[in-house]
Amino acid sequence: MVSVDQTIFIQIVIFLLTVLVINVFMFKPIFRTLEKRYKLIDGARDEADKLNKKTEIKIHSYNRRIIAARQQAKEEKQRMIAEGRELEQKQTNDARKKTEEVISKASKEIQKEMEIARKEIKAQIGDLALEIASKLGGRNFGKGKNA
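The structure assignment produced for this chain is given below.
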């Protein structure tokens, strides 16, 4: 068997002194370093989370601005289309009025010319009738030639 003597107490003291020295010079610095790392990592995570939130807010803000700009562009496009249609309608109406005026003017000119032609034909009817009668009858019914 193993016998317990006084050296066990010396070994226990040496072991405790070794643990104390190792604790002071090795474990405590390692734990402090690890604690600092954990704090740095947690701080970096917190900072990353804050930056992510700021980024999400900015992205959301930009998206709202983009949507608003697109809506404004759509409204502007529709307004310009409406203005174009109004301008087209106005120009079409103006052209229609001018065409109607030209047609009306031309129609009046044609009426005048037809009236003049009728008067000329009425004036020539007597002479034409005499000429036709003389050709058909073989005699001259002229106004003063052989009457």
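Interim note for the steering committee: The helical segments are 7-137. The radius of gyration is 60 Å.
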